[in-house]
C-alpha cells in the first residue's frame, strides 16, 4: 500500500519558504562578511546582513513572492528572540569576575548613563520618538546591533527604527576602531594596560569593534577590553527586565487601567540561563563552539530579515536627528567614559 506525503498548508509553506529564503541570503552574507576587506573594517555579519537586507528590500523585493513575507517576519521576530537567548553562551561569570569591581562598576555606569542620557536628549532635545531614542541609546550602551535586536521586541518597535539605530552603531563604532589607537599613541589616554582595556571595553559599541580597537594596541589590552565588553553584554538581562517593568507602568498610566502582568522577556531569561550553563562548563567546548556559530548565523538571519522589512523612506524621516543623537552619545562615551574609568581605577 503506497502513501504520499501530505503537502504543507499554504500559510506554513509560505512561512517555511520565507525562512529558507532569508537563510540562503544570510549564508551569502556570512561569506561576504568573511572577506578580508570587510572583516578588516570590523563589520560583523550582523551589520553586513542588515545592509544587504535593506538593499534587497528596497530595490529587489519584487523578485520574492509576496506571500513569503510571513516567513521574513517570523525570522525578524521569533527567530530573533531565540538567537538573543543563545547569545548568552558568549559570556561567563568567570569572565566578569576576572575584571573585578572596577570593570563591573565602569560597565554599569556606562550602560545606565548612556541609556538615560540618550533617551532624555533624544526625546526632549532632538524631538525623536521614544523607541528610536531608546534603540539608538541601547546600541551604544550595551552591545551594538545585538542590543538593538534585543530591545526591539520589548519595545514593540518598527523595523526601520532598529535600522537607523544600527546605522549609528556602524558609523561611530567603526570610527572608534581607528580613533582609540590614535588617541593612545598620541599620549591622550593616561591609563595603564588594565585601565585602558576597561576604557575600550566599556565605551566601544560592538564586540568586534572592541577587539579591532584594542588589538591595534597590544594583546593584554585586548583581553581586558573583551572581558569588560562581555560584562556590558551581561547587563542586557537586568536592563530588559527593568525596561519591561517601566513599560508596564507607563502603559497602565496611559490607559488609566490597572498595571498588566509584568511582560518578562523570556529570551532574556534564556540568555541568563545559557550564560550560567557556559559558566559551569557542563557542555563540551566543541558543542559550545558550534552553538555559538549557529547563533551568529541565526542573528545574521534576523538582521537580514529586519533589513528586508525596512524602507529607506522611513529612515529618511528620522534623518539627521538620529545621527545627531548618535554623535552626542559618542562624545559622552569618549569623555564621560574617560572620567568614569579615572574615578573607578
TrEMBL record:
GO terms for cellular component: plasma membrane. Keywords: Cell membrane, Membrane, Transmembrane, Transmembrane helix. Its main location: membrane. Pfam families: Cons_hypoth698. The chain crosses the membrane at residues 16-33, 40-59, 104-126, 132-151, 163-183, 230-247, 259-282, 322-341. InterPro entries: UPF0324_pro (IPR018383), UPF0324_YeiH-like (IPR004630). It is found in: Cell membrane. The keyword Zinc does not apply. It is a multi-pass membrane protein. Belongs to the UPF0324 family. This is YeiH family putative sulfate export transporter. It comes from Achromobacter aloeverae.
Amino acid at each position: 500500500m503506497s502513501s504520499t506525503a501530505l503537502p504543507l498548508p499554504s500559510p506554513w509553506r509560505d512561512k517555511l519558504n520565507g525562512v529558507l529564503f532569508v537563510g540562503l541570503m544570510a549564508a551569502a552574507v556570512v561569506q561576504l562578511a568573511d572577506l578580508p576587506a570587510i572583516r578588516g573594517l570590523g563589520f560583523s555579519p550582523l551589520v553586513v546582513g542588515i545592509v544587504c537586507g535593506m538593499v534587497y528590500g528596497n530595490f529587489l523585493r519584487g523578485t520574492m513572492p509576496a506571500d513569503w513575507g510571513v516567513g521574513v517576519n517570523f525570522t525578524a521576530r521569533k527567530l530573533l528572540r531565540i538567537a538573543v537567548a543563545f547569545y548568552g553562551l558568549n559570556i561567563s561569570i568567570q569572565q566578569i569576575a576576572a575584571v573585578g569591581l572596577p570593570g563591573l562598576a565602569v560597565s554599569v555606569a556606562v550602560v545606565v548613563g548612556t541609556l538615560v542620557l540618550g533617551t532624555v536628549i533624544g526625546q526632549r532635545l532632538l524631538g525623536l520618538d521614544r523607541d528610536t531614542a531608546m534603540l539608538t541609546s541601547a546600541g551604544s550602551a550595551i552591545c551594538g546591533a545585538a542590543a538593538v535586536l534585543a530591545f526591539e521586541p520589548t519595545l514593540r518597535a518598527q523595523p526601520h527604527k532598529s535600522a537607523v539605530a544600527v546605522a549609528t552603531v556602524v558609523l561611530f563604532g567603526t570610527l572608534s576602531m581607528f580613533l582609540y589607537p590614535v588617541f593612545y599613541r598620541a599620549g591622550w589616554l593616561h591609563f595603564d594596560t588594565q585601565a585602558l582595556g576597561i576604557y575600550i571595553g566599556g565605551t566601544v559599541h560592538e564586540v568586534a569593534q572592541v577587539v579591532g580597537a584594542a588589538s591595534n594596541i597590544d594583546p593584554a589590552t585586548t583581553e581586558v577590553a573583551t572581558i569588560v565588553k562581555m560584562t556590558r553584554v551581561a547587563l542586557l538581562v537586568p536592563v530588559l527586565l527593568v525596561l519591561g517593568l517601566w513599560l508596564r507602568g507607563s502603559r497602565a498610566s496611559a490607559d488609566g487601567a490597572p498595571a498588566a502582568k509584568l511582560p518578562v522577556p523570556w529570551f532574556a531569561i534564556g540568555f541568563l540561563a545559557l550564560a550560567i550553563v557556559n559558566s559551569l562548563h557542563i557542555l563540551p567546548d566543541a558543542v559550545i563552539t558550534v552553538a555559538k556559530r549557529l547563533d551568529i548565523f541565526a542573528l545574521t538571519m534576523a538582521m537580514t530579515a529586519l533589513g528586508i522589512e525596512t524602507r529607506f523612506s522611513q529612515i529618511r524621516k528620522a534623518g539627521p536627528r538620529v545621527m545627531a543623537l548618535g554623535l552626542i552619545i559618542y562624545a559622552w562615551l569618549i569623555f564621560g567614559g574617560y572620567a568614569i574609568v579615572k574615578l573607578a581605577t
